[in-house]
Design goal:
The complex is a heterotrimer of chains A (429), B (498) and C (248). Chain A has 429 residues and is α/β, with parallel strands linked by helices. Chain A contains 8 helices and 21 strands. In chain A, 22% of the residues lie in helices and 38% in strands. In chain A, strands 3, 4, 6, 7, 9, 10, 12, 14, 16, 18 and 20 form an 11-stranded mixed β-sheet that branches. Chain A has a 10-stranded mixed β-sheet with strand order 2-1-5-8-11-13-15-17-19-21, covered by helices on one side. With 248 residues, chain C is of the alpha/beta class. Chain C is globular, with a radius of gyration of 18 Å. The chains are: A alpha/beta (429), B alpha/beta (498), C alpha/beta (248). Chains B and C meet through helix 10 and helix 11 of B and helix 2, strand 7 and helix 3 of C.
């Protein structure tokens, strides 16, 4: 670890202080898991820009901050977004709040992780790689709670909302929820996640997602926290034969968003769709980093990511597709496009293909540009005011990504999130 | 036998027998002692009778090199290189200024004959004064600088070029005859401490070509340098500097070969190009260093820094490379697009067969307004070959209206090879437009069958399709070399494939 | 002459040809008609040697040579030409280069002198004119960006240049308008003579109005169920394949 990582030092000190009081402190397997993670985190600290995967995203503001743990009251009232579905699990500052949640009648088990760590044992840490991702190490070292979903074989779990609210306690704080999602064979679930709230906080969730044979998980994410929040999420997904993992993420709010997804297609004919729209305004930084492992034959993957940058902002897209030797007949496609709305915006993009099988169809594309002046003029010449014309063109730009979403509830929610972002930009302008 | 399996086997049959340039010339050589230290740097500088400023320049580079670490970020694997176990200076002993063919070492003559360099050029290459100012019948004259291990042995057409004010000579000669030009530009595009291999080269470079095209002059012929590594345990560290003054135009080609040896030999060159207002430099490479045998034994380690600066408005630098040789290729010919409306181009074909590894691509730095760049990269992997395109497109805040288009295509032949694409796109200018596309595929069964139904053999069909795959790049080569390159592609993929 | 006896073949382990017996004597044009999935294209691929079409029994000889034992290019050199139903695109490979390479490969295999670029161009231009093809098709990549009609004409051009002794036309009429159909048919008819035979595979009778066959065979479910003169094609058109099947 390099110097000037007071944040990292602080987290390690907190771990040392709390390790006997963290949830599961009496479980040796979990103690070991946390201790190992602490060793990894101590060795590396927060990644610096010298680390290739962090070349374009500077964590110095996080590494140098002194975060305390959240001291939220466990029964206080919080402002929650309007529900999208009958069932939802609510977390406040990373802690499960049964009183605010409505999980009754779900056809599967959905629990706060801290309450049933024994159930989680086989799954916790099964996919996360604290040795290679320091943020996953940090999460493993310090997680207190999370959502544990277990959809049995053949069950259609319907729609569940996961709401995470950060409540501003007036001083910097950090929380590291650990979410485990398991879909049994041929099970289905739509999980819509909303992250809101504010304060000077670090929200550092880690997801471990297992999709069994023929199962299908749709995972929509709306990261809409206030512009004071650091949102660094790491998702690990593993998809078995003929299973599907769909992820759609809207990042439109936090000061710094890192949306990092590691997906592995491990059984034949598995599929993964990762799409998203990331929006940044003045002073914000958005980063989508995907790593897709094609580790079995006949799998397909599709990625479409759109970045819109206004003001003095920065956007990053890094996408790696790794096709293993066994993964013959892989069909991989990735497109990332950025729209720059300001003179001061910067976009960095690093799509990457690593191919070790010969019978594959893999391609990626990247474009960067401003709003098309001719299109803008055309719209205005037809009497559409400039602001509206711009809004139309931005919407058109995002359309291709949003159209990949088939679930209507999710699509509606995503569209509203994007519209709200745009409305905020217009109001600020 | 299924068509694809057959293709793979044909490709696997490629052995050293396919490498026709692998002979060794038995010639009396002069060596500096093995190893690398300040004395060696001084030895080389003294051998070249260099002015003090250049020796100091070398020593600064050497000091920088000692503090640097060998880069390991490229997707290539090789055992550690012992920099002390190599000769840094090796030159054929020859009489000063031989006047006729009889005075030139016959082994040297034979070498050029075997390499297929025409007789008239051969006379010139061997340093016969007065010969070769008249081009051979019906053949576009090509001026050649021949670098044999550490030294330039001859440069042709100097007289003819001199009439136009063009300087084309060995860089060691330019240091003596045009020190002001060398001093003004040397190291201004690739500084001494730019990277590990560039620093090494700056300390120990022995020869290479120097080109200066005066204002408004269109160079009347292709300029070419032919690099030959011959001696054992010898590294080649050539340095090339090309300056195209305002409104001038030059097309330059380099070729290279080496004997077949079990040992790996290091080639760490630096090429610097400077294009002033309205100047154009077209730099083409057909890289055919010994690639090692079918088991991956031997072959050249090719760690090369090539960079061009488009300093002037509307200047243009175009890199075209056909990389078929070397055990390892580490090479990123780049363009610094400073002048407004300047243009950078990179066209590349890289083939890795057997155990060859290539990590190659380009960097386009868009600094001036309305600068444009085009990148077309075709990677072909066969056998156990690993082929990586690594590229950077960086658009600065002031590069208003800058444009980049990048196309990277990979072709895999067989399932033991790898094809990788690692582009970096960095843009901080709202009015810039960047487009990048990459694809990976293999030769489709139906394409092979279609060709065979029309009577082509498996090998001919693969050759035809691979050449089609590379067409966009090959058409950028000067006509005569395009034909050579096509043949080379087939030979590289083969024993066989064409 | 092409002689097929008891030919059976399978694709992906599924039997498609279930015993074909057929003779096309030298100088004759035969038509094979059949509904979709009857094995028409399989027959053309088996005869031309495409990978993945496994011969499980029977024989096929051409002028006494066992063509099934030959590589695809050897069959081509022996004079067998397949006009593809879906001509393949070869990006970056110029049409002229391709045609000349193919022509010279076959000439070489037959011990004939190869044509130089000028001789080839002269010949190609002549043949193209006859097929109402513009010169610029020589410069373009093989079939790349060609319309359906252009692709089919390009197939006929190849046939005209390579001068096979037997041509298999696999649904060459599909996707052609009436003018293109006429041009293609004229191209085939111009080849007709004592040394040229053809196997015209088609779903519809339409093409056979322009290329009048000596014999018509009906292929159904991997077998030839009926053979007859040109009138059989009209009969099929009027009554449909169902009637033939019922009768057979």
């Amino acid at each position: 670890m390099t110097a000037a990582q007071t944040g990292a030092t602080g987290f390690l000190a907190r771990y040392e202080g709390l390790k006997d009081h963290l949830p599961g402190a009496r479980k040796p397997w979990l103690n070991q898991l946390r201790a190992d993670a602490a060793v990894h985190f101590a060795a590396r600290g927060f990644p610096t820009r010298r680390v290739e995967q962090w070349k374009y995203t500077d964590l110095a503001p996080v590494a140098q901050a002194a975060f305390a743990e959240p001291l939220t009251s466990v029964d206080g009232q919080v402002h929650l977004p309007a529900p999208l579905a009958p069932h939802r699990a609510v977390f406040v500052d990373g802690r499960f709040r049964p009183d605010l949640s409505s999980l009754d009648g779900l056809p599967f088990r959905a629990l706060g992780l801290a309450h049933d760590l024994a159930e989680a044992e086989p799954h916790l840490g099964a996919l996360a790689k604290p040795e290679s991702e320091p943020l996953a190490a940090l999460n493993t070292m310090l997680f207190e709670d999370g959502l544990f979903l277990d959809v049995p074989d053949g069950v259609d779990g319907g729609l569940l909302e996961l709401v995470s609210v950060a409540v501003d306690p007036g001083r910097p704080f950090a929380f590291h929820p650990r979410h485990l999602v398991r879909l049994g064979a041929r099970a289905r679930l739509t999980l819509i996640e909303t992250a809101t709230g504010g304060g000077h906080c670090l929200h550092n969730p880690v997801f471990e997602i297992e999709v069994a044979e023929g199962a299908s998980l749709t995972h929509g994410r709306m990261l809409q926290e206030a512009a004071t929040v650091f949102h660094l999420s790491t998702i690990y997904a593993r998809v078995a034969a003929e299973g599907t993992y769909d992820n759609f993420t809207v990042a439109a709010g936090p000061r710094l968003t890192r949306n990092e997804i590691h997906a592995a297609l491990v059984g034949p004919k598995a599929a993964c769709h990762m799409n998203g729209a990331q929006m940044a305004a003045d002073g914000q930084h958005v980063d989508t980093t995907t790593a897709l492992d094609h580790a079995a034959p006949d799998c397909a993957s599709r990625q479409t990511y759109k970045t819109v940058l206004a003001g003095r902002s920065r956007g990053v897209f890094q996408g790696r597709i790794h096709v293993h030797r066994v993964a013959q007949r892989t069909d991989g496609y990735q497109m990332n496009q950025a729209l720059l709305l300001s003179e001061e915006a910067e976009i960095d993009s690093k799509p990457q293909l690593e191919i070790y099988a010969d019978d594959v169809k893999c391609s990626h594309g990247a474009t960067v540009g401003a709003l098309d002046a001719d299109s803008l003029f055309y719209l205005r010449s037809r009497g559409i005011p400039e602001a509206q014309a711009k809004a139309m063109l931005v919407e058109a730009f995002l359309h291709e990504a949003v159209e990949t979403v088939t679930d209507e509830t999710l699509k509606g929610a995503l569209t509203r999130a994007l519209d709200a972002w745009w409305a905020r930009q217009e109001a600020a302008a | 036998m299924p068509a694809v399996t057959e293709t793979i086997e044909t490709v696997q049959q490629a052995t050293e027998s396919g490498y026709k340039w692998g002979f060794e010339t038995d010639i009396e050589m002069e060596f500096a002692p093995k190893g690398l230290n300040e004395d060696i740097v001084r030895f080389i500088s003294a051998k070249k009778n260099e002015p003090a400023w250049l020796l100091e320049w070398r020593l600064r580079a050497f000091a920088a090199w000692k503090t640097m670490e060998e880069p390991r970020w490229a997707a290539v694997k090789y055992p550690p290189i012992d920099y002390q176990d190599s000769y840094y200076y090796a030159a054929p002993k020859q009489k000063v200024g031989p006047k006729s063919l009889d005075e030139v070492d016959p082994e040297l003559l034979k070498t050029y004959a075997k390499l297929g360099i025409p007789l008239r050029e051969q006379e010139i290459l061997a340093g016969v004064e007065g010969a070769g100012s008249v081009p051979a019948e019906g053949r576009m004259p090509i001026a050649v600088d021949a670098v044999f291990d550490s030294v330039s042995v001859a440069t042709s057409y100097k007289e003819r070029l001199g009439k136009e004010g063009i300087i084309f000579c060995a860089i060691s000669e330019a240091v003596q005859t045009h020190p002001e030009l060398v001093r003004k530009y040397l190291g201004t595009v690739v500084p001494q401490g730019d990277n590990f291999f560039a620093a090494l080269n700056s300390a120990v470079f022995t020869d290479g070509s120097f080109v200066y095209i005066p204002k408004g002059v269109r160079c009347p012929m292709e300029l070419s340098t032919y690099f030959r590594i011959n001696a054992k345990s010898t590294g080649q560290f050539e340095r090339t500097l090309i300056i195209a003054d305002e409104g001038s135009h030059v097309s330059y080609l380099e070729g290279c070969t080496a004997p077949m040896r079990d040992e790996n030999q290091l080639h760490a060159a630096v090429v610097e190009l400077v294009a002033l207002d309205d100047a154009t430099i077209k730099y083409s490479t057909v890289q055919n260093w010994y690639p090692g045998d079918a088991e991956g034994k031997g072959g050249i380690y090719n760690f090369v820094t090539k960079r061009g600066a488009c300093r002037g408005a509307r200047s243009k630098i175009s890199w075209t490379q056909v990389e078929t040789g070397s055990a390892i290729t580490w090479k990123y010919p780049s363009c610094i697009l400073q002048g407004e409306d300047s243009v950078g181009e990179f066209y590349s074909v890289a083939i890795t067969n057997n155990y060859q590894q290539a990590d190659t691509g380009t960097k386009m730095f868009h600094i001036g307004p309305r600068t444009r760049s085009t990148i077309v990269s075709k990677g072909i992997s066969a056998g156990h070959g690993q082929n990586t395109y690594r590229g950077l497109v960086r658009i600065g805040a002031k590069a208003h209206g800058a444009r980049n288009f990048t196309q990277c295509d990979s072709l895999l032949i067989g399932d033991l090879c790898g094809a990788h694409t690692v582009p970096y796109i960095e843009n901080r200018c709202v009015s810039a437009k960047v487009e990048h596309e990459a694809t990976t595929s293999r030769i489709a069964e139906d394409q092979l069958f279609y060709c065979r139904q029309r009577g082509l053999t498996q090998e001919e069909a693969v050759g035809l399709i691979v050449n089609g795959f590379c067409r966009e790049v090959l058409k950028e080569l000067p006509m005569e070399f395009a034909v050579e390159a096509q043949k080379l592609l087939q030979i590289s993929l083969e024993g066989s494939v064409g | 002459m092409l002689k097929i006896e008891g030919l059976t073949a399978e694709v992906d382990g599924k039997a498609i040809l279930k015993g074909i017996d057929l003779e096309v004597p030298k100088g004759e044009v035969h038509a094979i008609m059949g509904p979709n999935g009857s094995g028409k294209s399989t027959l053309s691929y088996v005869l031309s040697g495409r990978e993945g079409y496994e011969v499980t029994g029977g024989s096929a000889t051409f002028n006494g040579h066992d063509i099934l034992a030959m590589e695809p290019e050897e069959r081509a050199a022996a004079g067998l030409f397949l006009a593809f139903q879906y001509p393949v695109e070869l990006p970056g490979v110029g049409n002229a280069t391709f045609l000349r390479t193919a022509l010279n490969a076959q000439r070489k295999a037959r011990g004939e002198a190869e044509l130089d670029a000028m001789q080839f161009l002269k010949l190609a231009r002549e043949r193209m004119k006859a097929l109402s093809m513009s010169d610029d098709m020589l410069k373009r990549g093989v079939n790349v960006g060609f319309s359906g009609g252009e692709k089919k004409r390009n197939e006929i051009l190849q046939m005209a240049l390579l001068k096979p002794s037997i041509a298999i036309l696999d649904e060459t009429d599909s996707g052609l308008d009436i003018d293109a159909l006429r041009i293609v048919a004229d191209g085939v008819n111009a080849m007709r003579g004592p040394d040229f035979s053809a196997l015209v595979i088609t779903h519809y009778q339409r093409l056979l109005d322009y290329i009048v066959p000596d014999r018509v065979h009906v292929l159904m479910a991997g077998r030839i169920v009926k053979s007859g003169g040109p009138e059989l094609a009209k009969e099929l058109e009027a009554q449909g394949y169902g009637a033939v099947q019922a009768a057979a």
